[in-house]
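ok trying this again, last paste got cut off
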Amino acid sequence: MTPVERLESALRTPKSSTALVAYLTAGWPTKDAFTGHLEAIAQVADAIEIGVPFSDPMADGPTIQKTSQEALANGVTLAWILETLTGLKERPAAPLLLMGYLNPFLAYGLERLAADAHAAGISGFIVPDLPLDEAGSFSAIMAAQGMGLVQLVTPVTPPARRQKLLAASRGFTYAVTVTGITGGDLGPQHGLMQSLDALRSEATTPVMAGFGIRHPSQVAELAPHVDGVIVGSALLDCIRAGDDPVAFLSSLSSANREAST
């Protein structure tokens, strides 16, 4: 089984009734604390997005922007992330993805990135500023190492474009629940559930809903319409507040179980 196949399998056979992907900014809140959080969160989450800090994260809201700035101030680089993951004594108990913007990946070198990411146990990539029409080379280089490129579909993606994104996505399909940036609070969205149902009926990979998911009630509402949810800013806010991230994620998992009963 390739790394991206392991990712998809983990999301299709989740630890709870609905799959859970957690986002954690690399090297945050400190370099030393990062791996401990990673290992703990992996016990609850079905997969983890590791955010590569970037100076201009255009799709990310204030929470992720601030953690990214702090991680950069801590000296976190893509090379440090890959070296740290490769050096772990044990692989985390959940597949890992790198979520980042294209420039740092290009600066690192795509062939080198593919080899080092594979050695670090990475299953896939999310690159929000890499358009599908320009993603062929990136996808092919990562696929040669068994890793996949996740595509994002938004509520305003035209149907023909959506079909192309669904056909190209590997590991899972990222269903953006709102137009805008991360970190808000998902309020009532007209037609969202119908849109997610349609997306899920067309997708060949698991459909994971992300952006604005903070509360168990939201997870319970989304659960019948997607394969899982992605939680980022709310998890980082929990860590910054000094609360237990595992307990927070477990509360979302409890909502998953309740939604299925």
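PB: full thing came through this time. The first helix runs from residue 3 to 12.
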